Amino acid sequence: FCFFIDGLDEYEETPGEDYKDMIELLRSWTETASKDVKLCVSSREYSVFERYLSANQRLKLQDLTRADIEQLARDRLKGFNMSPEKNESGVDEDYLVQEVVTRADEVFLWVVLVLRSLREGLQHGDKLHDSLRRLSSIPRDLKDLFLHLLNSIHESYCRKAYRTFAMLRYRIQLDWNLSLFEYSLLDAYDDPEFAIKAPFRGTGTTEDDVTEQLERARNRVNGYYKGLLEVRGNEDSEDGTVALGTYVSFAHRSI
């Protein structure tokens, strides 16, 4: 048997049990059945793990993913005018890419969300020094980044955002997707008589109306929530419009 255990550093220590106790438990499994049980575990580089887990059987994920993260950053940032100011000698687009890679700590989700933020600024005319300032203001810890992104949602979108997050969390408990069409109706529920006033199928709402409604909903998901939500499923039908089978989801299960 081979067991893969992610995030040993996320274990919550108690007064009676700490990281070392957990390590001893894991090692006892392999020692008891050395030929039948293998473990592959991951963690941040805490000293307790480096001290008690064999260095000969250790890989640093950042050494394996750095090139991929760097390529992703280059691809997402290319095509923007980021000419440095005259007094910014030695600072160029490559410097920004390397700063993203260094700060990422091999966390791809962090990179994706940060690149989205940088691209948003560049699309609004940010120069290189603006992007570097924006990058330096973004927390390196993933949970802090989530909070940073939540706080950066425009005030006029906050009510819709919190309502959507709450509905998604509830749907996850039910193992039931929130369809893009359902999401598109959220604004309508501000009117308590919405369902009574809504026209019956075939009495005014056309397929083009539904397609336009789904397109607006997709644009809102992509534009309002700073990358925390995304549209998934068979997003486009054969003619390039949004398909009915699409649904709204958190960008990652850790959100």
UniProtKB/TrEMBL annotation:
Pfam families: DUF7791 (PF25053)
Residue ranges of domain DUF7791 in the record: 152-254
Domain of life: Eukaryota
Chain coiled-coil ranges: none
Protein name: DUF7791 domain-containing protein
